[in-house]
Write a structure and sequence with these properties.
By secondary structure, the protein is of the alpha/beta class. It folds into two domains: 65 residues, no CATH class; 147 residues, Metalloproteases ("zincins"), catalytic domain (Zincin-like, 2-Layer Sandwich), CATH 3.30.2010. The chain is built from five helices and eleven strands. The strands form three sheets. It has a four-stranded mixed sheet. Helix 2 crosses helix 3 and helix 3 packs across helix 4. The protein is globular and about 70 Å long. It comes from Flavobacterium lacus. This is YgjP-like metallopeptidase domain-containing protein.
């Protein structure tokens, strides 16, 4: 069941699960959902009191995961509009042509197309092609470094995700959002390192953050960049 409490001006929604556990536990998942697991017959007042006590931590965790949520794309894909590639800003130029192709020169990305309404799809296909190339290129040396922790992902995969920059599956697959190709290289490295750290430490505990800081000393800078990006 989904419930909520008011904490100041914020409404904290949470899913309540009664289990055979002895203590009450609160977790926040990457989708920013709050999951409360409570012993059977725990009074609702006790649960709400615990959530209010933990509310600052819950909000902090939700804000942290928000950095992995790409902003909605509201582009029109017309000549003169600005788009990003590896953190650099480019102007797009949409031209009519007998062939469909995308290329970039200087600070311009040119989209040649038989039908200008195809500009969005052509540019997205180009981004995805670049993502396949660059993600592997950037990830390879980082993966080599993580072998000293006796971990290695089963592969780097690209998948469109509306609410995540990246994720790590239980069987060791690193999944990256193709939208990352628009962000600076440092942001991409940060997300890769973040997901690789999950192969060493599953949860966001202190050991996880210590390892992330060791392997990506400027992670807070790149985290802020992701928050600002778009």
């Amino acid at each position: 069941m989904v419930y909520y409490i008011n904490f100041g001006s914020k409404k904290i929604l949470y899913t309540l699960l009664y289990t055979n556990r002895k203590t009450l536990g609160i977790t926040v998942n990457p989708e920013m959902e709050v999951i409360v697991k409570a012993p059977i017959n725990t009074h609702v007042g006790t649960i709400e009191e615990k959530i209010r006590k933990r509310a600052p931590w819950i909000i902090k965790q939700q804000n942290y995961f928000l950095t992995f949520h790409p902003k909605p794309n509201q582009k029109k894909y017309v000549t003169g509009e600005s788009h990003f590639y590896l953190g650099r800003q480019y102007r797009i130029e949409v031209i009519e042509s007998d062939k469909n192709e995308v290329s970039y020169k200087g600070r311009f990305i040119q989209i040649a197309t038989k039908n200008k309404s195809n500009a969005k799809q052509l540019l997205n296909d180009w981004y995805r092609q670049k993502a396949k190339q660059k993600f592997d290129e950037i990830a390879t040396p980082i993966i080599e470094k993580f072998k000293k922790y006796n971990v290695e992902p089963k592969g780097i995969y690209i998948q469109e995700m509306k609410t995540r920059w990246g994720s790590c599956t239980p069987n060791g697959k690193i999944i990256l959002n193709p939208e990352l190709i628009k962000t600076p290289k440092g942001c991409l490295e940060y997300v890769i390192i973040h997901e690789l750290c999950h192969l060493v430490h599953l949860n966001h505990n202190q050991k996880f953050f210590d390892l992330q800081a060791k392997e990506c000393p400027m992670w807070e800078k790149w985290k802020r960049k992701l928050e600002e990006f778009g």
